[in-house]
Amino acid sequence: MNYTRFKNNSACPVLTELPPLGVDAAALEADFRHYYMNSLGRDRSCRLTHYAYEALSLVVRDRLMERWKNTRYAYEESGCKRTHYLSLEFLMGRALGNAVLNLGLEDELTQALSNVCLEMEELADIEPDAGLGNGGLGRLAACFLDSCATLQLPVQGYGIRYEYGMFRQHIVDGYQVEEPDHWLGTENCWEIKRPEYSQRIKFGGYSESSTDVTGKLRMRWVHTRDVLAIPYDVPIPGYRNGTVNTLRLWKAAATEEFDLEEFNGGDYTGSVANKNEAEKITMVLYPNDSSENGKELRLQQQYFLASASLQDVLNRWIVTERADLSQFAEKNCFQLNDTHPSCAVAELMRLLMDEQGLDWDHAWEMTRATMAYTNHTLLPEALEKWPVRMFQRLLPRLLEIIYEINARFLQQVAERWPGDMERQRRMSLIEEGQEPQVRMAYLAIVGSFSVNGVAELHSRLLQEGLFRDFYELWPQRFNNKTNGVTQRRWLAYSNPKLNDLISAEIGRNWVTDLGQLSRLKPLIDNTTFCQQWQQVKQHNKQRLADLVKTDCDIVFHPEALFDVQVKRIHEYKRQLLNVLHIIHLYDRIKRGDTADWTPRAVLFGGKAAPGYAIAKLIIKLINNVATVVNNDPAVGDLLKVAFLPNYRVSAMEIICPGADLSEQISTAGKEASGTGNMKFMLNGALTIGTLDGANIEIREEVGDENFFLFGLTAQEAEEQRKNYDPLAIIAADDDLLRVMRLLQSGHFNQFEPGIFDPIIQAIKNPHDPWLVAADFGSYLAAQQRVAEAYRDQQRWIRMSILNTAAGGKFSADRTMQEYNEQIWHLQQVPALPIRQDSLEPAD
Ligand code: 26Q
Question: Which residues make beta-bridge pairs with 453?
Answer without folding.
Answer: 480
